[in-house]
From TrEMBL:
Single GO molecular function: calcium ion binding
Reaction(s) this enzyme catalyzes, per UniProt: a quinone + NADH + H(+) = a quinol + NAD(+); a ubiquinone + NADH + H(+) = a ubiquinol + NAD(+)
Repressor keyword on record: no
One Pfam family linked to the record: Pyr_redox_2
Protein name: NADH:ubiquinone reductase (non-electrogenic)
Keywords: FAD, Flavoprotein, Membrane, Mitochondrion, Mitochondrion inner membrane, NAD, Oxidoreductase, Peroxisome, Transit peptide
Protein's organism: Anisodus tanguticus
Entries under SUPFAM superfamilies matching the protein: EF-hand, FAD/NAD(P)-binding domain
Lineage: Eukaryota, Viridiplantae, Streptophyta, Embryophyta, Tracheophyta
Amino acid sequence: MRGYSFFQRASRAFNDYPHLPKVLVLFTVSGGGLAAVCHTAYADAGQDDIKKKKVVVLGTGWAGTSFLKNLKDPSYSVQVVSPRNYFAFTPLLPSVTCGTVEARSIVEPIRNMVKKKNFDADFKEAECYKIDTVNKKVHCKTTQPNHLGGGIEEFTVDYDYLVIAMGAQANTFNTPGVVDNAHFLKEVEDAQRIRRTVIDCFERASLPSISEEERKRILHFVVVGGGPAGVEFAAELHDFVKEDLAKLYPALKQYVRITLLEAGDNILNMFDKRITAFAEEKFARDGIQLKTGSMVVKVTDRDISTKERSTGQTVTIPYGMCVWATGIGSRPVVMDFMKQIGQTNRRVLATDEWLRVEGCNEIYALGDCATINQRSVMEDIGIIFSKADKNNSGTLRVDDFKEVIHDICERYPQVDLYLKKKQLKNFNALLKNSEEDAEINIKKFKTLLAEVDSQMKNLPATAQVAAQQGSYLADCFNRMKICEANPEGPMRFRGTGRHRFHPFRYRHLGQFAPLGGEQTAAQLPGDWVSIGHSTQWLWYSVYASKLVSWRTRVLVVSDWVRRFTFGRDSSRI
């Protein structure tokens, strides 16, 4: 009976205290008596406490791959979803178009990265077509060819945190005929198509039945867009024709023309004026026709219509191949998501300084599909002043701002940019510019900071920005638990306490513009500009170091060596 009473009490304890570790007692008969063996067991509730958070990453571009590579916390379960099962080093796409570098040399399979992670990570080759924020699900469909059987498969993936890194698509500006007749330069497949089309143009032009006029049209290559992608492709194509195709098709050399169309006044307008001037002069020497102030209004299968700003007239340009490299626009799924969350009047997703989509705490957006909606100082000017005015006196001296100066500069990066522009040492110098030791009221404070917000700028849609954002967000996820307990970010001006993390800050490391003929222009931090053959070797070394694996580094460098030794391959593959 005493044994039975013990079992009753043990059973009651299991039921009354489900959250505590349980002691499992096994009784065995040994030498005519009872022996007790104790084992500790844990209830199901304990297992739920350590349940891994589900992180879904949409996209395998620069932002998504950088996030995946730098995420190290094993408390997450990561699911990567993308229609492409590889990461592509997009700055080398112009080199792929002309055979300088092979397509497979610049791609790294995502599963190679996934298998190296020390936590639960998986990849699904599929396309996300809907984001359900209410139920925290993403709806996906397969992208494999139909000949595999079974048709299109649809499925959903649950998430606790969603990272949207889907990149962007080419922006046609609704110009008629662009989608049907022009080539884009956004994906590896685009570069491969361009490479085949260039060879097709030369092969067709070499046929004896082709007329002289038709031969000139076929060998006229038009590039629309004077940004880095368009300029680099025009330079690569010129080198391909001059160094390789002219030797293989000597009778066609005289017919080849390359035209670069730009709607603005200059090409490479995001670069220093010295680089722009050098690029335009070099293209003129190389015979690349540059037409600025030419806005494309229509593209057919044989002609491009442009409106000339100088005359207002519409000009028709016959062409053999057109490459459209004018800019980027949001993907349809991102546009639908923006409508769903009330961001209907924006070009891309708006996020805060911590890369969270505005209005969605568990959803982050990185790279070309998003932009940081930086808060303006004037919008919060009253709150900033009140945080410094602890005595509610209505007036402050410079010393009273000591406790909030660092938080102001960190929360509003435009303040630092404004100080640099005005050549002021720090925020104190801005305040003291008014009157030494004078009291500052809210009206004077507004006057001092009135021009600060003029320094607010959107970040460029570049691989460099996307990679830094992915790395930053991964670091935040790695330290999520630590920073929730001990916030390290700036003061919450519109609330209490501090933000968990420091806001994202982009660090510009410079930019390159290859101009052909083994010459490159570089604009590096500190307003340092370098142009010429030596900069080309700097370009080689930097791009080789930035490739994502030793495998791709070896392949790309070997392609460069092959090109120097044997020339570019002109096979139509």
